[in-house]
């Protein structure tokens, strides 16, 4: 806690800050993530909260359409959009309305959607509003399990659609690994797959990882996991008694944040043969990292009351030796209930092609 | 931290810095769905961007402001805004005259960026690392403040932890980063950091949003 002058609260002294936290959705945790990821998470949390506040059967059974377009544009001149502040409190019905929101869904403007079918709804957005290329999320209350559909290229490209669940009884590690597999294949596997601003290699031809390779891997995973589990908070670098954990997947109760589920702790390790300075990393050090990763994952899980823990290694060494890096710690991991997983980062596309064609 | 009367001390560079921040404020307001932004709300957001900047580890641009009966009002910001309107970078709409709470007539209007000109300026600004950090801060703050209605934003400072300090009377200076460094608003935002029920630490983005939500809870019903 801050002390001295930094702790003084002036006229706010004695206020109930904890109550504000308890009743406010977790907004802003993702402020360093891309707008589209925040948009999906914002809508998912709003819908969860609305259902929790009003119940599933109270609101209109018609879809709600959210456009990532903060300035409202009605499709008819006789329609005046209505702005709703504090939209995130879940007190306003969202169904049957076309919403204009920013990436952070704390307010929005809406116009009522007349009793139109799905084709007409898409037509209004794409033809009348000319907003068919704006990223959109559609919440359809007619499905049995609440889910949102994300159209990253807008409603003009309906074939590009991602269906996302927004409530989770539990998130199993296998499901998390499937998401990481997708992130790995699309963003990490080779230097070409990595974004220009998020390169893992300083010099891939020499197997020299970038100085901030760990942080970069962590950011890729945060973005991917937040997109996959939009109703959750993906927290990073939380200070904890055993140190600083890497990633945790947490799900708050939509209307009472004092109730939450911490689904998993992920401890991340980048295995490398060279430090970014170019000095060689001895094999023993690498195995020691792995061992410390197992112990850290178990300690964080126990301390944070998480349901599961995993050590996720990203192997940037020369040879893909699979799970050999875990040989020394398999017993330890089993004893502590830590699941082990490794992904190999290829230094070149050629190495990847050779490996996948079986010619290495 | 910028100390003293920046305009007197640093001349042109401070003029430029203020105008850049003004353009960034209007850009962020548009991204948050707040434009066209009424003049008093623009001054309120400018004040909030000053008083809460320590939460984002950003320097305070103007660490003091004269306490008025209504909103904070920065004469220099208004001067810069008028110049940007004259340059065609900012557009004004809904122009009228109103009698303010100090019984003085002033021009009322709502502002937004003129994109064809402003976007070129924004592109240049975004090339600088420090400015990108400022952009991320002002955007998040604008998102947080967009949770308020236009009316609530207009009266937000009546409950702001620093501006509403009853020890400072109307007509005196609210000083949080010039000669005095007592900033109750930043303290209150940071106070949230270690209070999350899950034991997690609030991020700086969360702190801004929680600050605004708490402030909203303190506003009397309109």
Brief description of this entry?
The complex is a heterodimer of chains A (360) and B (222). Chain A is an alpha+beta fold and 360 residues long.
Q: What distinguishing features does this structure have?
A:
heterodimer; A: 360 residues; alpha+beta; 7-stranded mixed sheet; 5-stranded mixed sheet; 30% helix; 21% strand; B: 222 residues; two-stranded antiparallel ribbon; globular
Question: What's the layout of helices and strands?
Answer:
The complex is a heterodimer of chains A (360) and B (222).
Chain A: H1 17-23, H2 35-54, E1 64-68, E2 82-84, E3 97-101, E4 108-112, H3 118-128, E5 136-139, E6 147-151, E7 162-165, H4 173-188, E8 201-203, E9 208-209, H5 213-228, E10 233-236, E11 239-240, E12 243-244, E13 247-252, E14 260-271, H6 283-304, E15 308-315, H7 330-336, E16 338-344, H8 349-356
Parallel strand pairs in A: 1-3, 14-15, 15-16
Antiparallel strand pairs in A: 1-5, 2-4, 3-4, 5-6, 6-7, 8-9, 10-13, 11-12, 13-14
Chain B: H1 6-10, H2 12-31, E1 37-38, H3 39-51, E2 64-66, H4 75-87, E3 90-99, E4 105-113, H5 115-125, H6 129-145, H7 150-154, E5 173-175, H8 184-191, H9 204-218
Antiparallel strand pairs in B: 1-4, 2-5, 3-4
Helix pairs in contact in B: 2-4, 2-6, 6-9, 8-9
